[in-house]
């Protein structure tokens, strides 16, 4: 019997366990998880904190149900301290007692941790959001202390999701970001719509600025610009660090991004040890360079790749797009592939086209504006990335663009996509077709 030990039991760990079990009723599978919950919905936590998901149990998968459904042994509150590869043994601590378990196959999905710099004056009213324990702490603080004001540091997707949800609870929010605009995966001309929407909602937006220290028991925030913010609570969402220490100490190779290096079937340089999720680096579909993409879709896909490989099948892949989507108040923000700034930095030639369309026919009530931008290769016309922002239908358009990129379609192909017309859902020419026509003109001109 193959004995499989998995470190980390959430996004990647629980998924890979379930995927392996689908093909393989016989292997012994063990999950070892540092904290108290396995297979919980990280991505649902902001919406529990905002009050849209009212039942805490909905974001948590019961450990017993999971163990029983998949016939898996689970240790929670158990921290893996080191790995001895020669002995194929994992060492962990639970209730301050040391344990060890041997393996035939080891799978690492230790995720990443939220960055929380130890700034002068930082106090217990500064939070990060990564685990259910973090979520519970934030919820307890809000229900017990009734904060009236909050500062969110970092305008990435977690910061923006929490901005929306704290605002929803009637807390006046300030958002601080060190860049010239929020959401650095958007080009500035697209991000400006997001910045404007944030201000429209009464949020105090501090761009090109940085939190440097606190005073007044964590209630006064001092920014680099000299400005101060008063906030009853702070959410720090300035990024994550992959948890690579276990792998590094075991002599496993790290990649260029600092995350764990894996091959196309997710094996580390030790073929008995696989790794996945936020702790690993992948290849970018467009640039073919290494990239650290900390999102749920790659973790799920990688879990399938590992389970298939253990079952004797090699899944062919050609890289990650990093498609992501979130809601911010009335808008949906959806991004796939590369943007102009990233391509510029990499000296990859591209053309960019922007267009604004509508979610559906203007004559049918409720039509909403969509802002769209794509970047494409000036020679081949192939799509390299796109972003869509709007109150309605942005998800669908981004999904079409993401599919087009993976299908290696050109801007000309976008004009020929039959996406289904009825005034409730689209125009007879969909917003994606219109964008395609515009880009096609530009492409033709360059190649005349
Ligand atoms: P995790 O799910 O974090 O699991 C890693 C686990 O390993 C942790 O529970 C950790 O305790 C455990 N661990 C670490 N070290 C050890 C050790 N030494 N011993 C034992 N256990 C250990 N992605 C999206 O695509 N869409 C979204 O909408 C989205 N929303 C998100 C919202 C929030 C608030 C957060 C925090 C993340 C969100 N993500 C989203 C990202 C997504 O959740 C992650 O990409 C995914 O969970 C990665 O899975 P993972 O297994 O690598 O890490």
From TrEMBL:
Domain Pyridine nucleotide-disulphide oxidoreductase dimerisation: where? 329-426
Its keywords, alphabetically, are:
FAD, Flavoprotein, Oxidoreductase, Redox-active center
Where does the FAD/NAD(P)-binding domain start and stop, copy by copy?
A: 3-290
Which SUPFAM superfamilies does the record associate with it? Answer: FAD/NAD(P)-binding domain, FAD/NAD-linked reductases, dimerisation (C-terminal) domain
Q: What is its EC number?
A: 1.8.1.14
Question: Annotated Gene Ontology MF terms?
Answer: CoA-disulfide reductase (NADPH) activity
Q: Has keyword Hydrolase? A: no
Similarity field: Belongs to the class-III pyridine nucleotide-disulfide oxidoreductase family.
- Protein name from the UniProt record: CoA-disulfide reductase
The record lists the organism as: Oceanobacillus jeddahense
